[in-house]
Design goal:
heterodimer, A: three-stranded antiparallel sheet, 3 helices, B: 37% helix, globular
Chain lengths: 100, 386
């Protein structure tokens, strides 16, 4: 990858296909009984919704598909879930935790 | 999503749980050897000699024990960690044990082949330090020729191998005016993260404080520059901004609280609550050669001594910030007030605060600061290390 490739801010839209970059690790910590996101010199503790979203960030599912799956699972209105998913992924993208 | 480093959310829970909790990170100072001689080096004034360093097997054992203890991230540091020829063997074991591995390097002794190999063995992240983006000034600060060109090359390799890069820029009066260029350098290098780290004045930096301290106006200006750049570079580069606490009103929660989230292992294997804690009298440091890491973390005298809040005196005792900043830094309290159990003089409630601020203001106002005392092994130690 050349140095310039990532030098613009990614804006998350419904068609974006988010993924975790290889150096970001979503790990279940059995000792502590919780999930962690391991990032360069950072450890994050995702909440239950963030975990469900992050698990689906495989570079294949679009944000829209992730949101509609969650809307079904949680029996919640799609538009609301989609908006929440986009804003969460935008925040994660700005922190360098997901790419799209 | 909450950030956990360096401590987990936990401020309302009682001390007993604090002790039972596992650390998140371990700073492994693999060696004190370094080709650079920066006058703000965080290593102690008394440097460990090469013939006293832990062996490959001992470091590998530390990595396995760290993972067993629940440590998530390992920071491979020094000195310059790449001067150890067995760095690959240590990284391999750390990565296999499930640790997130971070190499903290000055870069000048790294080769492309070694970096490639380290990546293959599971190295997760590289933090590359720079002294300045002005070549001559960088040479003056580090007492090392052509370092910047080498660092540029190393940064390119890191990105070539698609590894995440952090640029670490220690900031002081001799480079603070160059901050915009330093930030641009990090963007050009493809860094995902930059640490704009004002010098913290311990060990070598404390010895050189009068040569390094920026003025309050310079620090305020640098904070504005960082704020503007942060906004402009949102989604491109993440910022970590460390202010010099001489100009603060409240102390930093040093290490996220003593013995709460982080531990440090020296080249000889001594286990410290923080890398500067050997300057605090009355602490007994255990060695990984004698005792298991988990036992040291839970029961070691040095870790227990200032853990939690029960050791505190006024004005820390009963302070609403007692479990936010934990009374600041024990080493700074020791260095400036002579008693490590005093509140950090960076706190405005400290009776030493005014003198502390006055020292910074007076030193930074001098137009011709004293020359650097470069970080070097003392002559007798250097001879012994040959």
């Amino acid at each position: 990858m050349n140095a310039e490739a990532n030098r613009t801010r990614v804006i998350i839209v419904p068609a974006s296909k988010p993924a975790l970059p290889p150096h970001i690790k979503l790990r279940h910590d059995a000792g502590r009984g919780r999930w962690h996101v391991l990032a360069p010199e950072r450890v994050f503790e995702p909440d239950p919704i963030a975990i469900e979203i992050l698990k689906r960030c495989d570079g294949v599912n679009s944000v829209e598909e992730i949101a509609s799956e969650l809307a079904k699972d949680y029996n919640a209105p799609l538009q609301e879930i989609l908006a929440d998913t986009i804003s969460m992924l935008q925040e994660l993208s700005d922190k360098g935790v997901v790419k799209a | 999503m909450n950030e956990v480093a360096p401590m987990e959310q936990f401020s309302e829970k009682p001390l007993v749980e604090a002790c039972a909790r596992a650390p998140v990170g371990l700073l492994a100072e693999l060696t004190h050897r370094c080709p650079l001689q920066c006058p703000y080096c965080s290593n102690p004034l008394e440097l460990d000699r090469v013939n006293t360093e832990l062996t490959t097997e001992q470091w590998q054992d530390v990595m396995r024990q760290a993972a067993d203890l629940g440590i998530l991230q390992i920071h491979l540091s020094g000195g310059e960690p790449t001067v150890r020829k067995d760095l690959e063997d240590i990284v391999e074991v750390a990565a296999k044990a499930g640790l997130y591995t971070n190499l903290i390097t000055a870069g000048v002794t790294l080769t492309r082949d070694r970096l490639k190999r380290l990546k293959e063995l599971g190295l997760d992240h590289v933090q590359l330090s720079i002294q300045d983006v002005d070549e001559a000034n960088a040479e003056k600060i580090s007492a090392y020729k052509n370092g910047l060109a080498k660092k540029r090359e190393v940064g390119k390799w890191v990105r070539e191998f698609d590894m995440p890069l952090t640029i670490n820029a220690p900031i002081h009066r001799h480079n603070i005016e160059n901050l915009p260029n330093i930030i641009n350098f990090a963007v050009e290098m493809g860094a995902g993260r930059i640490e704009v780290a004002n010098i913290q004045y311990y060990a070598w930096a404390l010895k050189n404080r009068a040569s390094l301290m920026p003025t309050r106006a310079q620090v305020l200006k640098s904070a504005e520059i960082v704020e503007e750049a942060k906004e402009r570079l949102k989604g491109i580069m993440v910022f970590d901004f460390v202010v010099p606490d001489y100009y603060a009103k409240t102390p930093k929660p040093c290490m996220g609280g003593w013995g709460r989230g982080v531990m440090n292992v020296t080249p000889q294997g001594r286990v410290l609550p923080c890398h500067a804690s050997e300057s605090v009298p009355g602490l007994e440091f255990d060695n990984v050669k004698d005792r298991r890491l988990a036992d040291i973390w839970l029961n070691g005298q040095a870790f227990q001594k200032y853990r939690g809040t029960s050791w505190m005196k006024e004005p820390c005792r009963g302070c609403p910030r007692a479990e936010i900043d934990f009374g600041g830094c024990r080493c700074q309290a020791m260095a400036f007030t002579g008693d490590p159990a005093n509140t950090d003089p960076a706190c405005k409630l400290s009776p030493y605060h005014q003198a502390f601020v006055a020292a910074a203001e007076a030193e930074s106002a001098v137009t011709e600061p004293p020359p650097f005392v470069y970080r070097r092994m003392s002559p007798t130690k250097a001879a012994a290390a040959e």
